[in-house]
Each structure stands twice: as structure tokens, then as C-alpha cells.
Amino acid sequence: MKDWIKNYLREQTEATLALPIAEIVVWIDLLHEAREKERQIFACGNGGSAANCSHFAVDLGKGASGMGIGKKAPDQGKTNIIKRFRVISLTDNVPWMTALGNDFSYDDVFVEPLRNYGRTGDLLIGVSVSGNSPNVIRAVEWANSAGLTTLGLVGNRAGNQLAKLAKRVITVPSGHYGRAEDAQMHVLHMLCYAFIEGKA
Question: Of 121, 141, 124, 130, which Cα lies nearest the Cα of 172?
Fold first, then answer.
């Protein structure tokens, strides 16, 4: 068991250290531009990727919007001069998702809310280890046609459609679901902490 844990941690570290730093910088710049231009930022994914999207929206919406981590909101009477991120995880409105899944198709659970909110110039981050989730693919296809900037955060799996469709892609060099999801959260945390720690 100890050897298995050591090997797991070693492979996790290798996957994380191999992340494309230059591309992460580009994504941070895109988020900075979106904040300055008051663009909407969307994230979507399934399973562990859905949880990562929700976590990302919390950190970007609160921590990176001037309230930091573990801090209280500013007093009502004070002006918060830091621009806030307009971020939504499309995974978080469960009643809407179940209505769409029940009445239409689970493939539509992200694209339909995106049609309500998405505008030209907004950002969509699709998170998927396989890169083949039909609901994420459908959202990215619509976003591309509507003039949104599409970002794909994927694992290293065969037949990865998201990697081909998204305008910008970060591929975690692992096809292992656990390690890929952990490394994806590393990326999403860096996107947030660049702002939380005042580096962006």
C-alpha cells in the first residue's frame, strides 16, 4: 500500500509539473480582460469536473473579486473599488438542469442556460477529462457560433473532441480520472489565486 501511495503521488506530481505554464498565463490574461470589460464567465463539466467548476466559481466570484479567502464582505457603506468577476457555474442550478434533462435531453443542460446568458465576447470554460461529454461539447459548439471565447480544460484521453473544438486548450498529461481532475483543479486554483494574491 505504501508503494502504491508513493507511486500515485509521484505520477500526480509529474502530471502537475508538466502543465503548460505559458498557456495558463494566457488564460489568466483572458480572465483579466473579461473582468475589465465586464464579460460573463461560464464553466461547465460533469461529475468531478462539475464539482471543480463550482469550486472555481466560488473562488473567482468571491476570493478573486476583492474579498479574499476567509474574509467578510466589505461594509455596506464602503465602496469596493476592485472590479468583480461575473462568473457562473452552469452546473449549479439543479432544478433547471433536471427540467432540461427531463423535458429535452441531458445533452442540453448547459447549452440552454448558456443561450439565456451568453453574449459575444463572454468566456466559456469546458472542463472534461475525456473531452467527449456531449453536454459540454454542445455548449462549446454553440458558444463558438455565438462569438464567445471557448477554453477547454481536458485530460489526455483518446478521441478528445473538446480539445479540437475549444479555441484555447490546456491538456493535463494524464488520462487517469483522479489525477487529471486534481491537476485540473490546480489550474483552476491558479487562475483564481493569480488575482487573489495580486499577481494579475
Answer: 130
**Residue bearing cell 466570484:** 61
Q: In what order do the strands lie in the sheet with 86-89?
A: 86-89, 40-44, 123-128, 149-155, 168-172
Best CA proximity match to 144, nearest among 116, 170, 114, 171: 114
103's CB contacts (< 8 A; 6+ apart) are none
Given a contact cutoff of 8 angstroms between Cβ atoms, the answer to whether 40 and 85 are in contact is no
Burial of 122 (0-12, 13-18, 19+ CB in 10 A): buried
Contacts of 160 (CB under 8 A, 6+ apart): 130, 131, 132, 154, 171
Print the domain residue range for 53. 2-68+83-196
Check which CATH number belongs to the domain holding 132 and give it.
3.40.50.10490
Give the total number of structural domains in the chain: 1
Q: Which residues of the chain are under the pLDDT cut of 70?
A: 67-81
